[in-house]
Input
Amino acid sequence: MRFGPPLQCAGLARITVRFGAPLHCAGLADDARDRRAATDEIMDAIAALSGQERVARYNAVQ
Output
C-alpha cells in the first residue's frame, strides 16, 4: 500500500514498517511474573521481526 511519493528531503531515510502476527497476552497481567512473561514474548516477537539479536537481560531496578 503506497501513501504517496517518497520524501526527497535531506536527512530523511527510507524506513520499513513490519507487522507481525497478533500476540495474545490477555491472561498475563495478574502478577509481576506474568507481566515479565508477556514482556519477554513481545521482545521475542520484535527481535524476530527486526532481525536483531535478543538480549536476555534487564536493566537494574534503581
Remarks:
- The chain has one domain: 1-62.
- The chain has a mean pLDDT of 77.
